[in-house]
Write a structure and sequence with these properties.
single chain, 259 residues, mainly alpha, 8 helices, 80% helix, 0% strand, flat, membrane, transmembrane, transmembrane helix, Rv2743c-like
Length: 259
């Protein structure tokens, strides 16, 4: 696997750098201990120098032994280019999904790619209609609450089913172009049945979206004027009244001029 192979070489590089650092540290501490240790005997500070140098040398030896042992292990085999590209694409998708707008962007990319895959087939027009209806319903989903929630769930299930049916229609249609003459009549009949089912399903989905729009409209329509319009009318009257009062005050304080 690509990840295991890369991880193997990263561990080798880390061990090699660690062994080199400990070699430098052990050499420095060993040299300092050799220079600073008096010939008359070891005192407490000298014992500290010697102990640090011995510990550094021991860790250095362990690091080099670990490096040799890991270097002797065969590296995992490299992946095929197609599999490596698939893994890179999966990592990219995972990184995009962690972004705030990532799921929406990925959904749009998948939608466009699926629509492009159906280009030139009988299912392309039905797919485009389904896309428009699904986007319209998605814009109203936040307002379809209460009694309308089961309809939203049913629409989501129907959307997945119809998209799968559109893929089947496209697959059968492509196979029909490759089939020999004697196999085409039954395949064409099956293709016609699938196309009819797809058209009927998309039409039913569109009727559901229209009904959902009617629900949203009736749910938001008040019996009288809209509250926002009433508040705006009150604010307008208030501003007119203030403006009239200011005009009267200014007129009342204007000094009279004598001829």
């Amino acid at each position: 696997m690509a990840d295991e192979r890369a991880r193997h070489f990263r561990r080798l590089r880390r061990l090699r750098r660690s062994a080199r650092r400990w070699s430098v540290l052990a050499g420095g501490l060993g040299g300092a201990a050799a220079v600073l240790t008096p010939y008359a005997g070891l005192g407490l500070p000298d014992a500290a120098w010697a102990g640090a140098a011995g510990s550094a040398i021991a860790v250095t030896v362990w690091r080099w032994l670990d490096l040799r042992a890991l270097a002797a292990v065969p590296a995992p085999p490299a992946l095929e280019p197609a599999e490596a590209a698939a893994r890179s694409r999966a990592r990219l998708v995972s990184a995009v999904e962690r972004l705030p707008v990532g799921p929406g962007v990925l959904a749009e990319v998948r939608r466009v790619r699926a629509r492009f895959a159906l280009r030139g087939t009988t299912a392309a027009d039905a797919w485009a209609r389904l896309d428009r209806a699904a986007l319209t319903l998605a814009g109203m989903a936040g307002r379809l609450t209460g009694l309308a929630e089961p309809a939203v769930r049913e629409a989501a299930d129907a959307d997945r089913s119809l998209r799968d049916l559109a893929g089947r229609v496209a697959s059968v249609e492509r196979a029909l172009a490759l089939a020999p003459a004697e196999a085409r009549p039954p395949l064409a009949e099956a293709h016609g049945t699938l196309v009819a089912q797809l058209d009927a399903g998309v039409a039913a989905y569109e009727r559901l979206v229209v009904a959902a729009a009617g629900y949203v409209a009736e749910d938001a329509r008040p019996s009288g004027p809209h509250p926002a319009a009433s508040r705006l009318t009150e604010a307008t009257d208030l501003l007119h009244g203030v403006a009239s009062a200011l005009a009267e005050l200014r007129t009342g304080h204007t000094p009279l001029r004598t001829p």
